[in-house]
User: What shape does this take?
Amino acid sequence: MSLAEVSTRRSAYWRLQRSELRLVLGRRRNVVLLLGLAAVPLVLGLVLFFTQDTALDGQGPPFLDRVTGNGLFLVVASVFVCLPFLLPLTIGIASGDAIAGEASAGTLRYLLTVPVGRSRLLMVKAVGALVFAAAAVSAIAVVGLVAGAALFGVHDVTLLSGDTVPLAAGALRVLAVVVYVGLSLTGLVAVGLFFSTLTEVPVGAMAATVVVAIVSGVLDTIPALSAIHPALLTHHWLDFAEFLRIEPDWGVIGGGLAVQLAWVAIFGALAWSRFTTADVSS
Amino acid sequence: MTAPATTAPAVAAPADVDAAVRTQGLTKRFRSGQVAVDGLDLLVPRGAVYGFLGPNGSGKTTTIRMVLGLVRPTSGAAWLLGSADPGPVLPRVGALVEGPGFHPYLSGRANLARLDAADATADPRTADQRASHALERVGLLAAEGKPYRQYSLGMKQRLGLAAALLRPRDLLVLDEPTNGLDPQGTREVRLLIRELAQAGTTVLVSSHLLGEIEQVCTHLGIMSRGRLLLQGPRDVIDARGVARAAVTVTPGHVATAAGVLRVLGLDVTVEELTLSADLGALAPARIPAALVHAGVDVTGFEVRRPSLEQVFVELTGEGFDVAR
Assistant: This one.
């Protein structure tokens, strides 16, 4: 293959990828979903702002009590609040819809006869779902940062260990939290993509994806199953807290990311082998 | 590329593999055990307008899906424009399969732009031109900005045709293109097929309504229960059925006319003033000539060929509209 051919192929790939991103990010349902997620830090911030000098101050889940002292923690608290259900739901919708949505609209058969190679289409769809996941986490983070700064101001960061680091270093740690959470969702994206290749009913794939995340969370609470806990999809999600210790345990962080990588590899391969051999009768 | 890897045993390419569409022993057995397509040897010559006819559920769409690489055959093989792998030749094939399929919340034009963006062989600089041309061709330019979900059934079908015509094609595969269209729309589709065929495009058009597209076809293939009952040039198929002649004469001439026809070797049935008989090998023109020669006043003469529908009923023993 000549260099010119390679560059033509590459630009052809990006043309479809851009079209896919416009489709995913321009769709009203998805925009509403992002706005809903973005509202979480806003609402959370306002509630904390108006209750800060009452008896309710400092109660609730971890990180929440630190927000009034430092707006940066609104980012962390918001991500923490969204992690158990809202983010899995968002991922389920984005990835479950990927192939099944095209199948149910009848557009899949037309894309394939254009023709678009099945591996190429799956790649484009996976990137689309990942970008949407990143957009979801970013929406929470950006609005959390802006609302937190406006309501509470940003200051040097007091870590979980009690040590204080300067604002710049603290902000970097919060950014690391956000990136870690984003990467923690990739395994679920792969699971959703696989379900999406199994059905022509997008809602089914979406629901199944959310159920996987919930079941994983439930299994994680059963001590008798502690042997399988480290491999669970959601087990390491809260390890983002490592970035808020003076010396993050890179082993823990690396382990969390490795588990996601394994889920991506397994379910990515399943999605690929299913989609490249399936009869398209939708 | 697009076709799932074929695991079916290799089938030796037939001599006419270079046809627009050729299948050999093409078979699809679904997991339920139902055989949708059974040993099909389809031959669509280049330049033909091939009418692919059969009742609903006779296997036409499954055949088309296999030819386009959407469904993997259980056994047998298919060649599209001479290629056993549809991937490389599909850019030269326009397809409308089992009704239009578009994103409901995107406009007609945006839907075409999406398909164009998916085509790795299309030049992005001329994408708008292509879409405009295709929309104009199907008379949808005025409604191009409306969301697809607001389109009427006929407009949806037209957008499907526009997508098939997005680029110049060597072959058009149109599965039930007249579904949902009113008589005027159906006429327009026929006209479009005729125009495309005149420009050299091969057209494979399926329908479960015999009369609808029969008139524009140069070739016919008739399916029933997953099998191809009959295929070939249209005139050959037309000549299959036994033609029947009917002569109407003035009241005093019935007996004379019957005598003349019997001399010609025909088995005559008389019904009031009308005499009819199967023609067999007899040239129809000899009948009026012989009658006039015998001084019979002929007031009417007609040769009826059995309709395709009658041929179908003859071959299957059941009506065409019977779904299985």
Notes: The longest strand of chain A covers residues 157-158. The beta strands of chain A are 157-158, 164-165. The two ends of chain A are 35 Å apart (CA to CA).
